[in-house]
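The records we work with from here on pair a chain with its fold. These numbers are not coordinates but entries in a learned vocabulary of local backbone shapes. To see the layout at work, look at the sequence and tokens printed below.

. . .
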Amino acid sequence: MKTRILIAACMLTTPVLANAACEEFLESWTQKLHPNRALDSEYVTCKPWPANPALTLAVLPLPAKGSDSDTGTYDLELLVADSGSGSIIAHSYQTSAITYDAMLLSGISLDTARYQLMPENRAFGVRISHSGSSRVNPYDTTSLSLYVIDGQRLKPVLDRLTVEERGGEWDGQCSGEFNSTSRTIDVGPAGVDGYAALKILEKSKKSTNVSKNGNCSSKDSPVRRTSFVLQHRDGRYIVPKNMQSD
């Protein structure tokens, strides 16, 4: 039986400062893996893995030299650690994983929905959100990447699938058009290599705002639904370019 996962509503995150175990190990993880690098406390996130609370997941964002609040680059360290001792079990370091300028970084979160890709191999997700800085041309996007434990490393199996995208253009008062797209995942049966197929369910809608006689009204076009399937090939799920975040 397929397991339906609503990735638009499954962020399941816990603020790092509310998680004493995570807070306790953040500095030691950073110094062990990247001595003398600064850790951005605004975007760092970690939590026990609900599928196995003996393990803790963490994403450590490390700003590159020269980065500031308006433009820059983050390297990312992803890790799985023993929840009791903090010992690192597996990790993955990604250089220049996030860049931002006009599209500002607005959030990093862990997604621990039931991504059971194989009977013995469950994935976890990392969601990265960006927001545009223009008021009259708003734009927001969230991508999802999935990772599995492969020995002492974390193996990426799904790379930056866009799961939320919202944008539009308006006059700053009322009149304008807005578009939104969301994608969810059905984890399906195993494919030829043992990994489950991923059925992507896409929902798009358009809204138009009109000002008339001093009143602002909104009209929604019919929701458009479509779907497609991602098969696991050569170690990962291939995401179509038009559905992959930069």
Notes: The first strand starts at residue 3 and ends at 5. The mean pLDDT is 89. The radius of gyration is 20 Å.
